[in-house]
């Protein structure tokens, strides 16, 4: 048995992608909350004096990369839910007993979850343009996609690791929501981290989403707290670690 079976990875990616694209309600539902944050906060705090906000950057411009990062966090983390859904209908048992390595299954789920989360984030970025957002250059969009892909891999890995520890979707959903919002508020998505107390700021520096949002802001808006290389390095490291943890925990899932 090959450790990496590309045909199995492609099959799982295709299944997750088709399931997402064939359920318009899921697409609309995944965009509703980020869009509400974007509209109400973007226009509600327009012109407000926010400590640490660069003088030459409009708040909506500042906010959009944060909301795009939040969309990616939300969509990717809930990718683990599809594993539990497959467990309930018996599909997970079928792929676990198939002559395919667990590594290939994890990579297939990461590819599928990352693709659907990436589509959601790009739709939010597209919808922000009629609201007044304008990237500094269209050439920066491909680099933004790189940041989004690394964010997706990190948090799909996180979702798989978490889903491997649960047998019911209700408990998984509660824990994910309990984790997602602190990560969101501690990422600099809504306000500059420079305004936070130093002890809280250190927690933010340990948050992978911080580097994803900062990197998106660097390439789309032209302002950031860290250099692009630091953001890419931190996200690359977190994606490798989370995939390794997710694969390790998924190895222990029993085909019952």
UniProtKB/TrEMBL annotation:
Residues 25-253 form the ABC transmembrane type-2 domain. PROSITE patterns: ABC_TM2. Its main location: membrane. GO terms for cellular component: ATP-binding cassette (ABC) transporter complex. Keywords: Membrane, Transmembrane, Transmembrane helix. It is a multi-pass membrane protein. Coiled coil: none annotated. The chain crosses the membrane at residues 27-50, 62-85, 106-129, 141-162, 174-193, 226-250. One of its GO terms (molecular function) is ABC-type transporter activity. It holds the Pfam family ABC2_membrane. It is found in: Membrane. InterPro entries: ABC2_TM, ABC2_TM_bact-type, ABC_2_transport, Nod_factor_ABC_transporter. This is Multidrug ABC transporter permease. It comes from Natrinema versiforme.
